[in-house]
Amino acid sequence: MSAAVKSYAAVDLGASSGRVMVGRVGPDRLELTEAHRFPNRPVRLPEALRWDVLGLYAGVLDGLRAAGQVDSVGIDSWAVDYGLLDEDGALLGNPVHYRDSRTEGVAEKVWATLPAEELYAATGLQYAPFNTLYQMTAARASAQLAQAHRLLLMPDLLTYWLTGEQGTELTNASTTQLIDPRTRDWAHGVAERLGIDLGLFAPLRRPGDPAGVLRDAVLEETGLAGPVPVTTVGSHDTASAVAAVPASGERFAYICTGTWSLAGLELDAPVLTEESREANFTNELGLDGTVRYLRNIMGLWLLQECVRAWDGTDLGALLLEASKVPALRSVVDAGDAAFLAPGRMPERIAEACRDSGQPVPGSPAEVTRCILDSLALAHRLAVLDAQRLAGHPVDVVHVVGGGTRNALLCQLTADACGLPVVAGPTEAAALGNVLVQARAHELVGDLAGMRELLVRTQPLTRYEPRGGTERWRAAQARLARY
């Protein structure tokens, strides 16, 4: 291997699976291969729905062994969830899953002390019932929180086990609702008013900061030769995915698709207006002083849950049949918290259509078309609202992540937005992870340079909008009536 090419292990943990990817980076070279994939299965215990974080860590170790010798390791994952450590650094139980019901009604209790308008003006974070702030409030009387000496967000917890060093990565910390997006530091006033001890958090780290080296025991278990540094990346997977948007200039919107759809803009400063709060937009932090101004949409979770219910369904055949179903016959609100919990998804979508006076989809193909039309409609609304609220017009929509494999969804999104869609890369979070590591080793330049390398090396597909947007406006108006 040329000395100009280095290898990086990107640990990329999603809500249903984890994987260790190996990125090889050099001049005009950016290649990604999968070393190991492992399931991420939540476990419902009598007291809570929890993550099997020990199984995840074992999967990470297996993945590093399969990856072979690398120049650095970086970890990204989903946001908001955390593990608690005691004074000796031992884990106090498996982390609670963000889909657990413990946060029901908690937001209203928080707002009684700190009104929602003030909370948004201070943190810029959209309302979601599972935000870390609400999780910590729900756990206030728990024995585990009372014993806790340290709180580590999920990628920081795994980094700690790999290196023995503790830190709190900033892009992920910005999802806790305890960060001020203007100062890019803790919102001390919010924490004080709500009785949250910020001393539980380890010092903040930024993407590109060193996070330690693999412990000797980890080297022995993985067969790697030390020292192997661990590099802080955009540890919120969306931050890594946005870093891997192959855009040029500033006039673009992005949609990070997967279990969730995160649709919005990359800005230089947060939008903290009351109108922005009412539109449920969030201001999360990205690389190099950027703000990820976006709306969370339920995403392909809706389809994933339906496919799970239709055990044995071939997804490719299902999408082909869905493409033949008349467009926009029925749509649902893809951001509705009613779809957050697992189970009975086809029935719940049918019920939502019935309750809104629309035709009820019956076959799997009809339900699938309803879901994809609804997601495209939600993408349209998010892109339009973001431009209006931020005063930031766009000429193109970049779709990255797993949804790029769904050509029907990409085309429907182009149609709904009335803008060209550029789809790719599919493995955006892992590529963003790798590129931040490579930048820390001075193999690539700034964010623009990272994106130029993506354009030169990654396959991209362009979808042009078909027809006008009138029917999408009509569907949006129809849905708004209910």
Looking at this protein, list some descriptive labels.
alpha+beta; 7-stranded mixed beta sheet; 4-stranded mixed beta sheet; 19 helices
What does this molecule look like?
The protein is an alpha+beta fold and 482 residues long. It is 38% helix and 20% strand. The protein is built from 19 helices and 21 strands. It has helices at 53-67, 106-113, 116-123, 132-138, 143-147, 154-163, 170-173, 188-194, 216-222, 237-243, 274-278, 301-309, 315-323, 345-355, 364-390, 407-417, 428-440, 447-457, 470-480; strands at 6-13, 17-26, 29-39, 43-44, 49-50, 72-76, 82-85, 150-153, 168-169, 179-180, 185-186, 204-205, 210-213, 229-231, 252-257, 261-267, 282-285, 291-297, 396-401, 421-423, 461-463. The strands form seven sheets. The protein has a seven-stranded mixed beta sheet with strand order 17-18-16-15-19-20-21, with helices on both faces. A four-stranded mixed beta sheet has the order 3-2-1-6, with helices on both faces. A two-stranded antiparallel ribbon has the order 4-5. A hairpin with a 2-residue loop joins strand 2 (17-26) and strand 3. Helix 13 packs across helix 15 (364-390) and helix 15 packs across helix 16 (407-417). The chain is globular. The mean pLDDT is 96.
